[in-house]
Amino acid sequence: MSAETRPRLIDTLGRTRRSFWDWRGRRPFWGGLLCILAGVPIMYIPYQTMTLGDLHIRMATTAGAGSLIIGVLLIVLGLTMWYQPQSRVFAGVAAILLALVSLVVSNFGAFLVGFLLALLGGALGVSWAPGRPPAMAAVEDSGGGHRAD
Fold it and tell me: Which letter does DSSP use for residue 74 in this model?
């Protein structure tokens, strides 16, 4: 195998990046990412113990299991937006409802960080619409071959 026949690393990275951009463009990527990121503080913070010098502050609430369930569901809904884009409206509405429930159950939605991320991610999931393929968009823009006489 000569140097000319080996695939170059730059070509491989370019193809990988391009295929990721294509994959990302066909689904509500940012809505799913924000929902996944929202699940982490909602799951984590209610079980956290903060230490200030000799003082230990435990953030645990009586609804710690509820916080864990809400966080896991938000992560699952974010992955659903990525891998099942046709159910993006359901996943977005469910994420918004879970964000509202997390205000009561999980330390004000994990100190409003998880709440705001889930609310924005759910809204992005609901509002996302698939784009038209470039060839079809050009045909529709030119009138689609139909004349209005």
Answer: H
